[in-house]
Design a protein that fits this description.
The structure is a homotrimer of 338-residue chains. By secondary structure, chain A is α/β, with parallel strands linked by helices. Chain A has 13 helices and 10 strands. Chain A has 2 domains: 140 residues, Aspartate/ornithine carbamoyltransferase (Rossmann fold); 174 residues, 3-Layer(aba) Sandwich (Rossmann fold), CATH 3.40.50. In chain A, the strands form 2 sheets. The first copy, chain A, has a 6-stranded mixed β-sheet with strand order 7-8-6-5-9-10. Chain A has a 4-stranded parallel β-sheet with strand order 2-1-3-4, with helices on both faces. The interface between A and B is medium-sized, with 29 and 26 residues.
Chain lengths: 338, 338, 338
């Protein structure tokens, strides 16, 4: 596995990722996928290294994916259980991180419900002149880089299985549909997809669209041009123009809690306006594929039968890609260590 | 370890197990027990394979036993924690299972408080043409095959340590005492023990005996003949006829919650009528042995001093057998995989 | 790694530890620290052995340290989760321990909020003629031997990195400050530090000082001589005489719950009377170092900026020492096993 172009110690955000970095991750993930197809799906790449999974916000799915990725690379894993931790005893998060550092953690995978926590820990680790790598596994409504990277790996692999790379998306149209404003997944995907040169179209209810975009919408009716210079990003309040000729649809998970906060009408009405259905697919490019970060609310973001239709749904490939991409990230971040 | 006769992908129920299958498991478990007696109690049989322990109903004891069995075979394990899972986010159980499938789980060990869940997952895995193996670790009041198999391994090993096999029980009498109706352990044991040709006698309070048996009881006073054709199964409301000349007594755990549902008199009265005591052992065959799936309510199902008496109690051997039998199951189910 | 002088099966208390035993642990921990500095921080010393972490009282920090120590020695680990355990089903603690014994645990690391539980389990394991080793990871207000041993390793390593040994402390003065009476850490440290010949000075609020010491205090004003024969142990109600010319200060974690029990004034008042500040350090020996078992209440036991000052604080070294010392304990206890 080649690591020539990798110099990044932490993976916190995709905002400043270069094309070369995306391509290194995609190629390394392809190598990891090859490992996962072998008889013995394990390599000793990170033997003796310790990956601490620090999920201050619980998540079985993402935590299991990182844990499995670490084990496939022969790393030892430590799982931090927030409920039973010193945090309830009043310890600060930085002190918790420093404790895991002192225990010998080589990498920390961090999820927290507040934006910026992984970044703050990374800054502290650098200030202490350690070479611990921090991986953001989702911070508040900010970013979720490994999810966006696995989405990228899933769709570029579809276009060229052996040699997935960013530029394959240059002439594609991708729709991101749903609760944009609260979605760290959307935010990370916007960075990676627009970096590829693809046209990215966001569609969602006005209450669930980022404030920073609304001025653009107000200027142009229901469509806005990109607030990010030189990137092709468009915004819609209706789903139809976003889906028109789209090559990929990324649906976002709807947090049902939003409804109680009156940001949303009923689930039924949401599905009627923004749900992906077989009918709406007719607007898209014939070979359109659907992604969802999971877990899906069947019949809300997407109709139940469409979710299970392998002709359109990439949902299960996304989960599989997740292990390969997380192996790639841990491998790239960890290989300079020992 | 020989696997010649094994073709079963899932282990969900013992209802349709053949003699050859029982004997394959018993012999493989004997080999695993031999591994556990070595200096290094580990074999690389399942290296690189992933066993997902999906205990939707929490259980430290059974989960630890499966986890240890998997680790002794060098498999990687993933533990699913229901409290922190996507299920609380509204994901269906089948979607959860498909997520673990997509992550690369080779086998799933499933416990759920509702009968049929492991079977439903296995059906879905087959429909998707995967070769994932599903192991029922207890579903509602339905079955708990690995518990019945470890009971079988414990008692047949006592009769022939080197070559435990089903037919050793052909002329034995076995009493199963307690809360039959709510016991998945009893249900699985009834299948395996009657398959051996042994005489199986059930004894318990009328409220805790399966409905399907009561017509037999009503026909014959206090004893009923087997509702399963060609199997020697008898039912009693008093414990004495069940214990008479018994070679083995299987006591069942009493769920104290049953009492609040008025299905039971006091614990003291239960112990008086159905508790295993030194006095009651006099009714049995002199070499009688006692089993209990644990955890024991001391002084309820069995007197505390009897539980600790190695002359009679097989309780700790059962736990030890559990690891060997679960190794055997994972080995047999997993060996065709890679 | 040399184990010549080690014959102890369990580590429950430091009360009867010999100098030779302390030195064996310190030397073995130094070897383990060397392993942790290698490229691959792992040795196969305990391959195939099972370490059961039975934390009846939750603790992420100590449990992670033991888990990592076990994994560095290639042991398999089992984590017992009290919330989901059979204990809630009424099983006794001894029965739980016997279950893990029967499953094949070679060592059990036990934390419980009641004093004496690890000792009771060890007694039962011996009575059953097993060779399972029990390691007390904190029992009530009684002892926490591995914490005191890591403190000892931290400070003796500072005096002679290559060859840490007990007698290096013979002419040192060590202050232990805070909630002495409720601290298992203090209790274990008193045994090890006084055994070294060091002068140990305790200082804390009268309500937080052990009853057994108060008669000594009453006899001599505000200072008492050692209630342990031949050991140099002194007691103060003010912090100043304890700190005077001290070489090491061990601060204890303040349990905020104590305040609600009216055993303590406000946190502010506590800090004013017993908090370690830059000003108070002037009383000490110029090279004084500060220890704290963690997690620290910043600004209570110790001022926040002092805690982060590497010139004085050994807190992060303590955490690192913890893994090496726990490796040493598991190695010494386990090496005679297989």
């Amino acid at each position: 596995m080649a690591t020539a172009t990798w110099t990044r110690r932490h993976v916190l955000s995709l905002e400043d990722f270069t094309s070369a970095e995306y391509d290194t991750i995609l190629q390394t993930a392809a190598s990891c996928r090859e490992v996962l197809s072998r008889r013995t799906k394990k390599v000793p790449a990170l033997q003796g290294q310790v990956v601490a999974n620090m999920f201050f916000e619980p998540s079985t799915r993402t935590r299991s994916s990182f844990e499995l990725a670490a084990k496939r690379l022969s790393a030892d894993t430590l799982n931090f259980a927030p409920g039973t931790s010193s945090l309830t005893k009043g310890e600060t998060i930085l002190d918790t991180a420093k404790t895991y550092l002192a225990m010998g953690a080589d990498m920390m995978v961090i999820r927290h419900r507040e934006a910026g926590v992984p970044h703050a820990i990374a800054t502290e680790m650098d200030r202490l002149q350690t070479n611990v790598g921090i991986l953001n596994a989702g911070d508040g409504q900010h970013e979720h880089p490994s999810q966006a990277l696995l989405d990228l790996f899933t769709i570029t692999s579809l276009l060229d299985f052996e040699y997935p790379r960013l530029k394959l998306l240059a002439d594609k149209k991708i729709a991101i549909v749903g609760d944009i404003v609260h979605s760290r997944v959307a935010r990370s995907n916007i960075w990676s997809l627009t970096a590829s040169g693809a046209e990215v179209h966001l569609a969602g209810p006005p209450t669930l669209v980022p404030q920073e975009f609304t001025e653009y919408v107000q200027g142009t009716g229901d469509q806005a041009e990109s607030p990010i210079p030189n990137r092709r990003l468009f915004l819609h309040w209706d789903i139809e123009p976003a889906l028109k000729d789209a090559d990929f649809i990324m649906t976002l998970r709807l947090q049902k809690e939003r409804m109680t906060a009156h940001l949303l009408p009923s689930l039924r009405e949401y599905h009627q306006r923004y749900g992906i259905t077989r009918d709406r697919l007719k607007l898209c490019h014939p070979g359109v594929k659907i992604l969802h970060p999971g877990p899906v609310n069947r019949g809300v973001e997407i109709s139940s039968e469409l979710m299970d239709d392998p002709q359109f749904s990439l949902i299960s490939q996304q989960v599989t890609s997740g292990v390969a991409v997380r192996m790639a990230l841990l491998y790239l971040m960890g290989s300079g260590k020992s």
